[in-house]
Design goal:
Layout: H1 2-10, H2 14-33, H3 37-52, H4 57-72, H5 82-89, H6 96-113, H7 121-142, H8 149-159, H9 163-166
Length: 171
């Protein structure tokens, strides 16, 4: 019985295969390109948890999942300063990925929390840098020797009230 059905399916015209494939693949594809309100709220929460516990394994894993999913969706546009992203990503630092991921998640969290400021890229950049510095402080609290000069320089600018100077390199 099943053999006959499979042979008949195999002989089916191309349009039937197209119909079957689109019925199977289209719902999956559309589910992957947009986020839900629950996901966005979760991303914001994880971003703030990472500011306090960036080295905690379970939070870190959730941060990775949020980072991957945020990268996959097309309904949340994350503004990133290329110079800052390059600086964070290019650091010779054990926690460079943690810092870069935080920068990207925090930019997304800012847009999610402040949809009315989505066009204000400088505000998003500033919020993301502030989140990165919170994360860096949390790392240093657990690992006092885990220093990175670019982040120490940003901390110094922050203490002088000059974090905006770091954003001058951003478009």
């Amino acid at each position: 019985m099943w053999g006959g059905i499979l042979i008949n399916l195999w002989r089916a015209p191309g349009w039937i295969w197209l119909l079957v494939l689109s019925a199977v693949l289209v719902p999956q594809a559309s589910a992957q390109v947009t986020s839900t309100p629950e996901e966005r709220a979760h991303w914001v929460g994880i971003t703030h948890q990472l500011e306090n516990s960036p080295l905690e394994d379970s939070v870190n894993k959730q941060g990775e999942a949020a980072f991957k999913r945020l990268s996959d969706v097309h309904d949340v546009h994350v503004p990133l300063c290329p110079a800052l992203l390059s600086e964070f990503n290019g650091m010779k630092y054990a926690y460079a990925h943690t810092i870069t991921r935080q920068y990207m998640l925090a930019s997304g969290a800012f847009i999610i929390e402040n949809p009315d400021k989505a066009a204000d890229t400088n505000a998003a950049y500033l919020s993301a840098v502030e989140s990165v510095l919170k994360t860096y402080r949390a790392i240093l609290k657990q690992k006092p020797d885990a220093k990175a000069k670019p982040l120490d320089d940003l901390l110094k600018k922050e203490s002088q009230g000059k974090v905006n100077d770091a954003l001058k390199q951003c478009p």
